[in-house]
Amino acid sequence: MASFTYRRQLTIEWGQCDPAGIVFNSRFFEIFDAGTWHMFEVVLGVKPHELAGAFGIIGIPLVDARANFMKPIKFGDVVEMTSRVSEFRRSSFDIEHRLSVGGELAVEGGETRVWASRSKDDPEKIGGIAIPPEIIAKFERA
Amino acid sequence: MASFTYRRQLTIEWGQCDPAGIVFNSRFFEIFDAGTWHMFEVVLGVKPHELAGAFGIIGIPLVDARANFMKPIKFGDVVEMTSRVSEFRRSSFDIEHRLSVGGELAVEGGETRVWASRSKDDPEKIGGIAIPPEIIAKFERA
Amino acid sequence: MASFTYRRQLTIEWGQCDPAGIVFNSRFFEIFDAGTWHMFEVVLGVKPHELAGAFGIIGIPLVDARANFMKPIKFGDVVEMTSRVSEFRRSSFDIEHRLSVGGELAVEGGETRVWASRSKDDPEKIGGIAIPPEIIAKFERA
Amino acid sequence: MASFTYRRQLTIEWGQCDPAGIVFNSRFFEIFDAGTWHMFEVVLGVKPHELAGAFGIIGIPLVDARANFMKPIKFGDVVEMTSRVSEFRRSSFDIEHRLSVGGELAVEGGETRVWASRSKDDPEKIGGIAIPPEIIAKFERA
Description:
The structure is a homotetramer of 142-residue chains.
Chain A: E1 5-11, H1 25-44, H2 51-55, E2 62-69, E3 78-88, E4 92-101, E5 104-114, E6 116-118, E7 126-128, H3 133-141
Antiparallel strand pairs in A: 1-3, 2-5, 3-4, 4-5, 6-7
């Protein structure tokens, strides 16, 4: 899919690094999560905290996350990050994050999320609902 | 006040430490917060996530936090922690946390929290209400 | 492989949860990391911060991490966690973490780590070296 | 002291918030820490990870941190933050952080840090050394 690619630059903070002087793995998953919210804001034109209300969903919960750490990223490193939806399915979608330092790919991450709503029959239950085509179209056009 | 002292032992994890190999400051505030919830559970006999419901409050929000770092605490260090309510006022109270390693005091922390409820007139407003004397008595007797 | 299974119980803290009231995804990767260190301590009889020195390595850096979130885990939930090495290869190995609440599997995680050392020719370079058979044997016997 | 005031804008991420939907207290101490590093970079013209090397110190370790939470800050809130050195002493200094949302002061934080070096007699010992007057002058002129 020719999907919109969201670009962001970030500088690694002291508090994100571990005793080896490199970013602690869990911090990358915070960075991925924030990247996804920002991308949705840019593409859909809706503030992250208004996303659920704007589209009648409870949110876009994460069902799968993964990362491949190719090169260590250190305190003070300037990271170029790209995020894009690599695939839309009926009610779920995949996001791909890439973090590079000095032009070299250092970390690749992936998230699978669900376009989720409460069940009408049982509000305790949360499940995926069909992603509206106009949402998908916005990512293609963006 | 002769208040109950809650004791806990914890071992410092890799992910809690920074490039200097010592616990990153924000992690102590996570540790203090958890210590307060655990102490309340032990003294009041109510699970943390049931505290609000059990006492008709919305929670015990933090209004002030502070820490004094006397000695660095490192990855793998075994920490002895004590937590106690050092003062109850009408609707707020102070908690004191002390972390020692090898018998030496390393970090001293303090929290001020409010026994908080929604205003009956304006549910958007949250404010302190009088702490029930039986709550205070439990901390003295514990 | 009939590998040792490390068991641990943990209770979810307030500070590990997000506005949906469930554990924020990055926190699971902290939990996995700590689980791996603890398992190594139990099996090898070496404190985490002494692991590198004891075996002449620089550590066991993570090259891949992944998680599958099947059921949300909430504030106050008591989690039963198991961790085991699911495969040893020449210089890398896979760890499998499973978190259950009330007997139901909620999160499955995986890590791939390297038994890593500095290159003798270029100390700036870090790479995998062969995992000693006695290390692998300890995980099988444990 | 007419000290330089460093200004920064940040937007609160989902992962920084707790089940009450507001920033979890420890996150503010991460924000303060990053604010201090950024301010030093701007004033001294030295990248955070080069600070120690550039001035012959081991760093600017934190000895005291504190925060006063006046108004909750929520997911999606745009925060205006100011940081300044409020006092320089011989070998330690105080930093004051202020976070406002919509023009209203929401959180006030303070840090006390030491201009620290290893002892010449005992490299295991770390202690404060006199802050060079040219460093202080840069904060006044900035």
